[in-house]
Specification:
Elements lengths: L1 H24 L3 H28 L6 H17 L4 H24 L7 H23 L16 E3 L2 E3 L1 H23 L1 H11 L1 H6 L4 H23 L9 H17 L4 H20 L10 H16 L10
Antiparallel strand pairs: 1-2
Length: 317
Amino acid sequence: MLERLGVSHLTGTAIGAAVVLFLFATGHKEDLVIGVITGLAYSLIALGLVLIYKSSGIFNFAQAEFGSVAVFVLYLLRQNDMPYVPAALLALIAAVVLGLVVERAVVRPLFDAPRVTLLVATAGVALLSIGVTFWLNDAQGRTVDPAIHGNQALRLFDIIISWQRVLIVVVVLVIGATLALFFRRTTLGLAVLASSQEPTATELVGISVKRLSTLVWGLAALLGGLAGVLVGPFEPFGPGGMTLKLLIPGFTAAVIGGMGSLQGAVLGGMIVGVGQSLGASGGLLPESVPGGGAVITFVLLAAILAIRPQGLLGRTT
C-alpha cells in the first residue's frame, strides 16, 4: 500500500514538473505564477471543506460564507478607523463564532440525521447568511484595503507580485504545515481522525465526538475567514461574494485533490488556479470563449475524476 502510494506521488510529481516546464516553454509563466497564488487562496476553502468531510462526512456549502462574514466585519471595523491587525483578528473571531453557532444550532441537532439532510442544512445556512448581509449591507459592492500596502513585493520570473499575494502564499504554507503536524503528531488530531472512521469506538474510549465536531467546525470557519480577509482586497465584494468567487473553485479543488486529503486540497487548489488563469487569459482557449476559466475548471475536474475517481491524493475505500 505504501509502495503504491509512493509511486502515485512520484507520478503526480513528474506530471506536475512536465506541466510547469511546458508552460514556461510556451510563454505562460505569468499564468502559472498568478494561477498558483490564486489557487492557494482556493485551497483555504478546500482545506475547510476537507476538515469537515474528514470528521463527519458532511459537504459544507456554507464554508465560503465564513469568509463573507469575515471580510464584511473587517470592512465595518476599518470604516470606523480601527487599525488593521486588531480589525482582522476580530473579523476572524466573528467567522469562528459563526462556525461554532452553526455547529451548535444546526449540525448538532441533526448529528444523527442522514448526511444529505446536513448538506441541505448547510446550504440553508449559506442562503441565510447571504440574506442577512444583504439586509445589513444592501447589494452595493464594497472595498477593503489590503493587509500590506505597496506596489510590489518582488519580481519572480519578471512578474511583479504584490505583498498581499505574498501574504497568501505564506499563510497557506504555514496553515498547511500546522494542520499536517496537528493530525499526525497530536493526540487531539488523531482523535479527530478516529472519530471520522470509527465514531462509536471513539465514544467508547471516552472521547466526545460532538466536542470534536465543535473543534473542527471552528477550525474550518477560521480557514474560511482567512480566505475572505486575504482575497477581499482584490476586488469589490457584496452579499454572498465569497460564495460566488470561492466556493465552487474550492469545492472543485477538494474533489480533485481527494476529499479526505489535506495535501490534496492544496494541490487541487493550485491546479484549479492555474487552469482558470490559462482559461481566462486565452492560454488554452480563444479569448472570445466566455467563461474560459470555468470551462477549464470543469474539463480538469472531469478528466482527473475519470482517471482517479478518488482524486489525485485520495485513497480508495
